[in-house]
Amino acid sequence: MATSFLWNYTKKFVTASIITVTVSDRYVTVIPVRGDSMSPTFNPKSGSLMEDVFDDYVLVEKFCLGKYKFSHGDVVVFRSPLNHKETHIKRIAALPGEWFSTYHNSDVVQIPLGHCWVEGDNTASSMDSKSFGPIPLGLIRGRVTHVVWPPPRIGAVKSIPPQGLAFF
Amino acid sequence: MVATIFRNLGPYVSAIKAAWGKTFVIFKGFCFLHITSTYVISAAVTSGPSMLPTMELRPNVFLMEKISTRFGKVSRGDIVVLRNPQDPRRFMTKRVVGLEGDSVTYISNPDNDDKFETIVVPKGGVWVEGDNKYISNDSRNFGPISYGLIQGKMFWKILPLNDIDLSGINDLKRSIRSCKLKFCNTIVFNF
């Protein structure tokens, strides 16, 4: 009978989507990287046509949201402090309580409690803490661990602190 | 070798299938609970003096909805649960006083003086204050919070069942000022 087949299919579809959303919220998910503010780590602008057309896809783990313990150089996904509907991907440059200065300003800023300083790897074109200041750790939605697409660049994302920054 | 293992499993296959079926049902229920408590409605237990007299000192249980906050429909005067901007593992319950673009006037230190300060809430920010201005750690201390920290909006009180007896309001005012409890805690059922 057509109706019972449709009903069965709908039930399976709803179950699968509920499970997918739960796993993607709590454990691990795959998201595309838009823009080139994390170039060359993600979306590097090389000469190859193939890489320019498709975005990188990365694996994001959510287990770090239990304790909110991050280290320098972690690449994190966070909700934008200017628009809660957007998410950005940047690297953590400084953790709460640290004094931090960037190349460009001569200001030294102390990261307040519960906040962190995020910067993109492509310092030339990156909307990050240089524009909107330190972000609260509560906005972080996950940590990027691996690149899963495109195939030539599948591999772990290393946690290297951004170059050329001074810590006091 | 593997073939003999599978042959010996024969009588156990049905038991394994039944166990797997039950586990799967439990897992589906867990996922459904997660979806509901993250995107629709959840409960929160609040305690602490910063929202007196709206909320009592002893633990209150409230229902909070998460749908309107996801769509940005928070308005002034709403009581919201937000992640503590100074410690992301903790939550706090405060009232929304100003949205982005608003000009908020407040007294930063009600105990000491009556000096007013005015601030304009930046884009993407929300100004929250506790109802008990003497003892609340809120935007007057840590500045406007990002909207993304808001978890949900309170809309229904479950416990305690009795309302505060308003005839003792003078004793209440005295106890508010002398309250040593600066610790305000909100426990959200976000398992």
TrEMBL record, chain A:
Transmembrane spans: none
Residues at the active site: 37, 90
Pfam families: Peptidase_S26
Membrane topology: Single-pass membrane protein
Domain Peptidase S26, residue spans: 7-98, 109-149
Cell location: Mitochondrion inner membrane
Keyword Mitochondrion among record annotations: yes
One GO BP annotation of this record: protein processing involved in protein targeting to mitochondrion
Name of the protein this chain belongs to: Mitochondrial inner membrane protease subunit 2
Automatic annotation (TrEMBL), chain B:
Primary location class: mitochondrion
Location of the Peptidase S26 domain: 20-106, 115-156
Subcellular location: Mitochondrion inner membrane
CDD domains found in the cross-reference section: S26_SPase_I
InterPro entries in the record: LexA/Signal_pep-like_sf (IPR036286), Mito_IMP1_subunit (IPR052064), Pept_S26A_signal_pept_1 (IPR000223), Pept_S26A_signal_pept_1_CS (IPR019758), Peptidase_S26 (IPR019533)
GO annotations of cellular component type: mitochondrial inner membrane
Keywords: Hydrolase, Membrane, Mitochondrion, Mitochondrion inner membrane
Database matches in Pfam families: Peptidase_S26 (PF10502)
GO molecular function: hydrolase activity
Active site (record annotation): 50, 94
Family stated for the protein in its record: Belongs to the peptidase S26 family. IMP1 subfamily.
Subunit structure, as described in the record: Heterodimer of 2 subunits, IMP1A/B and IMP12.
Main function: Catalyzes the removal of transit peptides required for the targeting of proteins from the mitochondrial matrix, across the inner membrane, into the inter-membrane space.
Protein name: Peptidase S26 domain-containing protein
Species of origin: Flemingia macrophylla
